[in-house]
Specification:
Blueprint lengths: L21 H4 L38 H13 L7 H15 L7 H6 L3 H7 L5 H15 L3 H8 L3 H7 L6 H15 L3 H9 L2 H15 L2 H13 L9 H4 L2 H8 L5 H14 L4 H10 L1 H8 L5 H14 L4 H9 L2 H9 L4 H14 L4 H8 L3 H11 L2 H20 L3 H12 L3 H6 L6 H21 L9 H6 L2 H7 L6 H7 L7
Helix pairs in contact: 2-3, 3-6, 5-6, 6-9, 9-12, 11-12, 12-15, 14-15, 15-18, 16-19, 17-18, 18-21, 20-23, 21-24, 23-24, 24-25, 24-27, 25-27, 27-30
Length: 496
């Protein structure tokens, strides 16, 4: 067996190469609603009884074409005051139609030519018209790409941005909701919103709402803010850097929904590469994220774990910031979580720590976490087992990169904890990438055993390896169709 660790998606084999970026490792935590179903949202209920027109009017009566003509006629007549209430009634009726839970008539509203006139109404001095029009545009933008584009193509974004800091909190809430839907559609539209200088206004609004304790509109504003940093290609960090200290402060808001969206925002930013990760670490994001890992709220723990784990893909300095915040203390409970995806994420995070400095590796060794990791390797679902194998493989790789007695003793600790049997059993998995990983790890393990057994003239781990049927499994892989695996297990040529 070769002792070289090869990672098909990496170029070298230093400690940084053992770090696993999400795209490279193809590790995907099951997406929560904020990523999957709620990157866009329709406004289904009234936000404020003070500003919303009374709901007594039934939604039956005029259809979309008739209502659209009322709105269009009002706008084209330059909004005569005596017709304002009639226009408002028409917009409210359209809003109700667009807010229905099933099959809202978005295309019908667009095809009636209403959208540009709803955009025009954002500039009307009547706050009720601004609010109801923004609500309609929110729900149109919640639709598919073409429907969202119908809003953007009529120059809605600058008009919406101009209302972010409206005197009416209800109007502000609704326009950021609309902007969140637009930004959540795709990176191109996200950048379009950013190009209109939305960030300073968003931050001013968030600070205002947090100061006033307005939780409901704050939830929407923070959700929209998270959409301004999500998506690939990654956002230009220079355009959103000012968001970071505000997000750090928002982690202390005692509201699960706000905290969850802040954590998602951090997870998106922490996926943008080392310079951004270092900026997050310097801003103190790690401490707040780690603290939330013990909050007991799954909707918060999931994105907090994702964000902290993404920071761990960065430099050793960023990794240390997470460790200094007490990250490892939160993991035993999470490794026992009934949620498979969370256990998988924890193992993935640990694999990046064990790819760090020797001191960071030793810190993991002192916690007792590796026993739990071995348990996961032995008795968990395959997706978790793969990540657990990476944790142990990186410990064993530590001997290859630093073949000292201390590094060999780390491997000995793993053997004493019972790692050989579960590692050998992973060779039975029909997954070439995992099999190659385990073969390389076992090669390093046996090399460490050779070093530790020098005094006795025998490999310290050979017996345990044989008892785990390691030799039999290696022989079985000699018929493997994968050339890389065959090369690792083929018998050595006879000596001349």
């Amino acid at each position: 067996m070769s002792t070289k660790i090869e990672r098909s998606h990496k170029k070298g084999i230093d400690k940084d190469d053992c770090r696993k970026n999400r795209a490279d490792a193809k590790v995907q935590l099951r997406k929560a609603s904020k990523e999957e179903g709620n990157m866009k949202r329709r406004n289904m209920t009234a936000v404020s009884a003070e500003i919303v027109v009374e709901e007594g009017a039934a939604t039956d009566g005029p259809g979309v074409p008739e209502l659209a003509q009322i709105v269009i006629g009002f706008c084209e007549a330059n909004g005569p005051h005596e017709l304002a209430e009639q226009c408002l009634d028409a917009v409210v009726r359209l809003r109700k139609m667009l807010s229905c839970p099933n099959n809202p008539p978005i295309d019908e509203v667009i095809n009636a030519g209403t959208t540009p006139h709803l955009v025009m109404l954002l500039q009307h001095p009547m706050s009720k018209l601004q609010f109801e029009s923004a609500w309609c545009l929110t729900n149109i933008a919640s639709g598919n790409k073409d429907q969202c584009q119908a809003v953007v193509s009529h120059n809605a974004v600058p008009s919406l941005v101009a209302l972010i800091c409206s005197e009416s909190v209800e109007v502000s809430e609704q326009v950021v909701w609309a902007l969140g839907n637009i930004a959540g559609d795709c990176p191109r539209l996200r950048d379009h919103v950013l190009e209109h200088n939305a960030v300073p206004l968003f931050l001013a609004l968030v600070e205002r709402l947090a100061s006033d304790g307005r939780i409901s509109p704050l939830r929407n504003a923070v959700w929209a803010l998270s959409n301004l940093v999500r998506g690939k290609p990654h956002v230009d960090f220079a355009k959103v850097e000012a968001i970071v200290p505000v997000l750090v402060r928002l982690l202390s808001i005692d509201d699960g929904e706000v905290r969850a969206d802040v954590c998602w925002a951090f997870s998106y930013l922490a996926d943008c590469g080392n310079p951004v990760i270092d900026a997050l670490a310097r801003a103190g994001a790690a401490a707040g994220l780690v603290q939330l890992l013990s909050c007991g709220e799954p909707r918060v723990i999931t994105p907090a774990m994702r964000a902290a784990a993404n920071i761990l893909t960065g430099t050793d300095t960023a990794t240390q910031a997470v460790l200094d915040a007490g990250f490892l203390r939160a993991l035993p409970a999470l490794l026992m979580s009934p949620k498979m995806q969370l256990r998988k994420e924890v193992c993935w995070a640990l694999s990046n720590i064990t790819a760090g400095t020797p001191a960071q590796l030793d810190e993991v060794m002192r916690t007792g976490l590796l026993q739990l990791v071995i348990d996961r390797l032995d008795k968990d679902e395959f997706d978790v087992q793969k990540e657990a194998a990476w944790v142990l493989a990186n410990v064993m790789h530590g001997y290859q990169s630093d073949p000292t007695l201390h590094a060999a003793n780390r491997v000995r600790t793993l053997v004493q904890l019972g790692c050989i049997g579960p590692m050998v059993n992973m060779l039975d998995k029909n997954n070439p990438a995992t099999q190659k990983l385990v073969l390389d790890a076992l090669a390093n393990l046996l090399a460490a055993g050779e070093e530790l057994g020098k005094a006795k003239g025998e490999n310290e781990f050979t017996k345990a390896f044989d008892e785990a049927e390691g030799v039999d499994k290696l022989e079985g892989l000699q018929e493997h169709k994968n050339a890389d695996i065959y090369d690792k297990v083929r018998p050595a040529p006879p000596s001349p």
